Q: What sequence folds into this?
C-alpha cells in the first residue's frame, strides 16, 4: 500500500467494487485506486444479505434506464468479468416481476408506471384479472383489478457473485484493496486531502468515494458533511412448500415470477424453496450491529397473505431466515450519486434503499465518469445527485418496495 492514491473508495462491497472496476477499465483513467474494506468476509454486508433481484418496473424514467443497463450488464457479466479461466456466472434467473393491484389507486399507479416503462422500451405488460389467472393458475385473483408483469429483463441472480466479480476484475486491472477501516478524513476547506486508517496509516487522496453502505452517514461526518442515510433492518425468509406451484405457470416455461402482493409481501422461487419478505410494520433506524431477524413477521404477516393469495401456500414452513440492512435514504428512498457541491472531490454513492445490487453497475459507471471526465457521459444521473439533499427536494419514485 502506498501513501498516496488518486482515488480512495470507502467500502468494497458491490458499490465500491463497481466504482473501482469502471475506473480501472476506463481507458482514459491512468490513476491509482485504493479500496478500504473493513470486513473482507462481507458477512454482514448489505450485498451479501440481499434478495439479489433486478426489475425494470419503476415509475421514474432514470430508474428504469438504470435497471435496463443493469440487466444487460448482468447478462454479459461472465464475459466482461473474465479473469484468466475464471468466468463468473451469476446464474441470472429471468423470472420476471409480477405486481398485483387490488385497489383502484394501486391499479392507476401501475398504469402510470407502465406508460413510463414502455416509453423506455421495457418489456412489461398490463394484465386484467383473467389474464393473470390464465398465466398463473395457482393464484387466487378474485380481488385483483390489474397486474403488471415483466416478461423479460427482470429476475434474480447471485449477489456475492456480482460483488466478487467486480472485485476480482478490478484487482486484475491494478486496483488495490486493503483490509482496514477509515477512522478520520482530512479536509482543507472545500477539498478532501487524506484518510486516516485504523491501522494508523495516513493516505493522501485526490478523490474520496463514499461507498460505505448503511454506514454512509458515519463516513460523511468524518469530513464534516451530512447524508440522510441510516441502517434499516429487513428480514428475509426461506420456506418449504408442501405443494410447490413452481412449474405451473402458463408462461416463461412454467417458471414463477417474483410476485409482489398488494399487501407488500413478496415471494419468489429459490431453487426448490421460496424466498419471501415484507415491509416492516414499524421501521426504525437500526443499530449498526443489530442483525437479529424479526421472526414474527413470517407467522403474523407473510404466511396469512400468501395463504390467502394461493392454496399452494397454505402449507409452508420457514427453513431459514436472516436480517440485513438497507442503506436507507430517509429523504426519498433513492440513490444519491454525485459530488458534494462545496467539497467537490467527495463523491457520494449511497442511499440505494434496497436497490444497490441492481443499480450498482450504472452507479459505478456514473461515478467513474465523474472522476475521469468531470461529468456523466453515458447515463445522466444528475437527477439523483446530492444537490437535492441540500435543497430538501425529494426524487419521486412510486415503485419502491
A:
Amino acid at each position: 500500500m502506498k501513501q498516496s492514491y488518486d482515488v480512495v473508495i470507502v467500502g468494497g462491497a458491490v458499490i465500491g467494487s463497481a466504482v473501482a472496476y469502471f475506473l480501472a477499465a476506463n481507458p482514459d483513467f491512468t490513476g491509482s485506486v485504493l479500496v478500504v474494506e473493513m470486513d473482507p468476509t462481507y458477512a454482514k454486508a448489505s450485498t451479501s444479505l440481499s434478495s439479489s433481484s433486478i426489475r425494470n418496473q419503476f415509475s421514474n424514467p432514470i430508474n428504469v434506464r438504470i435497471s435496463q443497463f443493469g440487466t444487460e450488464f448482468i447478462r454479459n457479466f461472465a464475459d466482461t468479468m473474465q479473469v484468466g479461466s475464471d468466468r463468473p456466472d451469476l446464474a441470472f434467473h429471468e423470472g420476471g416481476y409480477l405486481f398485483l393491484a387490488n385497489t383502484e389507486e394501486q391499479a392507476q399507479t401501475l398504469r402510470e408506471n407502465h406508460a413510463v416503462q414502455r416509453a423506455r422500451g421495457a418489456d412489461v405488460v398490463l394484465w386484467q384479472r383473467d389474464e393473470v389467472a390464465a398465466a398463473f393458475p395457482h393464484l387466487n385473483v378474485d380481488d385483483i383489478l390489474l397486474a403488471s408483469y415483466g416478461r423479460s429483463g427482470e429476475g434474480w441472480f447471485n449477489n456475492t457473485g456480482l460483488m466478487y466479480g467486480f472485485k476480482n476484475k478490478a484487482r486484475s486491472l491494478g486496483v488495490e484493496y486493503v483490509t482496514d477501516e477509515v477512522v478520520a478524513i482530512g479536509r482543507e476547506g472545500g477539498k478532501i486531502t487524506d484518510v486516516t486508517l485504523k491501522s494508523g496509516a495516513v493516505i493522501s487522496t485526490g478523490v474520496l468515494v463514499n461507498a460505505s453502505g448503511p454506514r454512509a452517514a458515519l463516513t460523511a461526518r468524518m469530513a464534516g458533511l451530512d447524508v440522510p442515510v441510516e441502517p434499516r433492518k429487513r428480514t428475509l425468509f426461506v420456506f418449504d412448500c408442501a405443494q410447490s406451484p413452481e412449474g405451473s405457470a402458463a408462461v416463461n416455461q412454467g417458471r414463477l415470477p417474483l410476485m409482489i402482493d398488494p399487501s407488500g409481501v413478496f415471494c419468489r422461487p429459490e431453487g426448490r424453496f421460496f424466498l419471501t419478505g415484507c415491509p416492516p410494520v414499524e421501521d426504525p433506524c437500526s443499530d449498526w450491529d443489530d442483525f437479529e431477524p424479526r421472526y414474527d413477521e413470517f407467522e403474523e404477516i407473510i404466511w396469512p397473505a400468501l395463504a390467502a393469495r394461493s392454496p399452494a401456500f397454505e402449507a409452508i414452513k420457514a427453513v431459514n431466515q436472516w436480517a440485513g440492512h438497507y442503506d436507507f435514504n430517509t429523504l426519498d428512498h433513492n440513490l444519491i450519486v454525485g459530488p458534494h457541491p462545496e467539497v467537490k472531490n467527495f463523491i457520494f454513492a449511497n442511499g440505494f434503499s434496497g436497490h444497490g445490487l441492481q443499480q450498482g453497475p450504472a452507479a459505478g459507471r456514473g461515478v467513474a465518469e465523474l472522476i475521469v471526465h468531470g461529468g456523466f457521459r453515458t447515463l445522466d444521473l444528475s437527477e439523483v445527485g446530492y444537490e437535492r439533499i441540500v435543497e430538501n427536494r425529494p426524487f419521486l419514485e412510486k415503485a419502491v418496495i
